[in-house]
Amino acid sequence: MVQLTVKNLRMQFAQRLLFTAEELHFRRGDTIYLQGDNGTGKTTLMKILAGLMPPTSGKLIWQDGQAPKWWQRHPQLGKLVYLHQHPYLYEGSVKYNLSFAGHHHKMSGKILQQRVAAAAQMAGLEHLFNADAVNLSGGERQRLAIARAWVIQPDLLMLDEPVSNMDRESTRLVMEMIHILKQQGTGLLVSSHQSCALTALCRQTWLIEDQRITASPFHFGNRQVQKESLNVITS
Description:
By secondary structure, the chain is an alpha/beta fold. It is 27% helix and 29% strand.
């Protein structure tokens, strides 16, 4: 079981405390809705989990019990993918972007070729296969980034405002790819300012409030988050 555990996490900038968390678990198969007001640190938390930013203090531990000296060099990191609201794309074609991660993970040529073709089709980008990625629209860029993650079949996927400013068709295509990943067991951590098709998939919530991160069950049907310490009704 792939699992990322966070213990005694603390993040602050100068004298400003952003958040603390006693213990959090992000497992393969989880579907987690990350909630909090603007400025509470949702993106910062995701960057910490992705190894892009060190916390002030605390441990991030994989299921093997080893806490890496520095997160970015941990061998498991390749199976954890973080997608920012404005994803980074490599210079080159759509095909190059889709192939890059597969080459990095030493996927065989035939399997990689099949996955790249399937990802382009699912993302509705097959007609832009040889187009320069930097010239894509915002929705196309987001679809490409998620398709690129789909190619390597990550164990854990973090999505930061994944469908904001997307049109209906782009949202539909993104949801199809994420549904496939979920069915294959990929753990999802979704940050969104409002309820959407993706948050409807979630069965847990991480709430950042009053400089603390707490975890609890999330019930989308009645939009009620049941907490032992807090009673929160989502908007």
